[in-house]
Amino acid sequence: MNKQAVLIDHDGALLTPEGWEANYLAQYGIDWRVYQCRSEQEVLKVARDAQVIIIQTTVPLLTRNVLSQLPNCRCTVRAGAGYDSIDYIAASELGIMVCYTPTYCTDEVADHAMTLLLAANRHVARLDAAVRAGKFSRNLAAPTEGLWGATVGIIGLGRIGSAFARRLTGWEPVLLAYDPYITQEYANQFRVKLVSLDELLERSDMLSVHCPLTPETTHLLDWAQFRKMKPGMVLVNTARGPIIHEPALVQAVKDNTVRAAGLDVFEQEPLPVDSPLFALDRVVLTPHISATSSQARHKLYVLVCELVRAVFTGQRPAFLVNPQVLERPRQP
Prior knowledge:
The protein is an alpha/beta fold and about 325 residues long. Helix content is about 30%, strand content about 15%.
């Protein structure tokens, strides 16, 4: 059987391998192919013979239905910092390895979260729009609060959340975090105090979301949680859109529970043209680009190729999230 690895994305504009990948993998007898797929049927058509399938989009194309019809697939790789576009449970039941690339964009996402925090807090987007429209409207800068001495909350203190915390230390805020999977000893490295989610919401002047999207975190911030927030909060999300229930967020902005927000991710992407978020000038919007940099792009494809090589050379791939399948691997 030919060794075949297939890279799939939903948006063709994001299919940007650097060109060396096919030659590198060819050294190991691996055929590297790249496709744009917008449906499960298209995935089945192009990936039928692939042993490794790399999915770059956050659109959930590798569903139970798809995976069950790909008998040769031994490993799926999410080319990104999360693996919510792969049905992890179905893959595990079928004996398919699931890997991802969590380290390629840590600094970029932390940088973008800082950018959105500062831009939202200081109303950069609406001030820029006003100046361009010929309005020298300084009143649009209010309300703005200083970062020094403010309480900044972080949901998820993993790689990116902790990198975000490190960036904040120069502003000397009080740092709190909610993350049930880490210890206070770990959090101490970043001068962060662990608290419950309720306490985080009640005390935070500013809040940044950095947890993965799982069934546990879907709509983690919903109507009930917004009612617990300290009024006048600044909210940033560079993780996954469905962590925040958007209708609840829209209402929270309208009633000033959230005085400003910075969003790089949304419940539906691209953001629908009729989204009520467009009408809120205190919300800064960017199109899911927080991981973007030339350095991150290169690191992403290096990691992807190393994972593919490991699978085909009989090694245990890095960032394997379901190691239990190694005891009963899928046989093509």
